[in-house]
Amino acid sequence: MPHVIEPATSGRAKCRGCGEKIAKDELRFGEVTENPYGDGDRTLWFHPVCGAYKRPESFIEAMAATLVEDGSVADLEAIETPAARGETIAWLRDQSRVGLNHPLLPRIDGAGRAPTGRAHCRSCREPIDKDDWRIGLVYYDEGYFSPSGFIHVGCWRGYFEGEDVERTGVEGDGERTAGERAAGESLEAGMVLERVAHFSPALTPTDLAEIDGGLRSS
Ligand SMILES: [Zn+2]
Ligand SMILES: [Zn+2]
User: Fold this and answer.
1) CATH topology of domain 105-216
2) Ligand sitting nearest the alpha carbon of 153
3) Residues with Cβ within 5 Å of ion ligand 2?
4) Other C-beta atoms lying within 10 Å of the C-beta of residue 110
5) How would you classify the pairing of strands 4-7 and 144-152?
6) Which ligand is nearest to the CA of 132?
7) Which of 92, 125, 208, 210 has the fewest CB atoms in 10 Å of its CB?
8) What DSSP character marks residue 165?
């Protein structure tokens, strides 16, 4: 079965990406995967933005399938994006592409101050000082995201741009323009900040300004 984007038929499902409920009738993204515990497929639900951030390859496939098969472009345009901003299909597609081109980027799971000085940065391997801002990471395996450490805010560039992975073709992604391609390939501090803000909604504007300063000074 292909991945889907459709209105939620109930308000019971929780988003795999952020842990919050997906409201009834709100659009949801369903990633269809093989059930590791038995026969057949299962569907893992996400808010569209959470899917674009954390499961970019499947999300692009879902967008392609949805747009082609039932033409629900208008529905997709109504998705609330963090850019509150930009509310566009193009925005979601760009976020997915940036994630595809920077395979560690979808691991971002927010940010916080280090409660102790014991954790080591996954990028530079140095300790993260107590009370320093750190970006939290998760690792995806068979439908579940598990905590997988932290990086210094200032280490984002080396960590997320460190891997230059040759991209294989993604279904439905063949007709992008040069401008769209560029949007999917350059990583900017602001993109990291948006992901951090999305997955740590409790951060205050002051917190975000401090994190932003750390991102931009690196
Ligand atoms: Zn979510
Ligand atoms: Zn570091």
Assistant:
1) first zn-finger domain of poly(adp-ribose) polymerase-1 (3.30.1740)
2) 2
3) 121, 123-124, 152, 155
4) 19
5) unpaired
6) 2
7) 125
8) P
| Per-residue confidence (pLDDT) for residue 79, from 0 to 100 | 61
State whether CATH 3.30.1740.10 applies to domain 4-101: yes
Which ligand places an atom closest to the C-alpha of 155?
2
| Ligand nearest to the Cα of 16, by number | 1
* Under 8 Å between Cβ of 51 and 59: yes
CA of 105 to the centre of ligand 2 (A): 15
For residue 17, give the ligand nearest its CA: 1
Answer whether 45's CB lies under 8 Å from 16's CB. yes
Q: Which two tokens stand for residue 81?
A: 């994006």
Distance CA 1, CA 132 (A): 45
**What pLDDT is attached to residue 179?**
47
Give the residue range(s) of CATH 3.30.1740.10 domains in the chain.
4-101, 105-216
The reported pLDDT for the residue numbered 77 is 58
Ligand 2 centroid to 50 CA: how many Å? 26
Cα 124 to ligand 1 centre (Å): 30
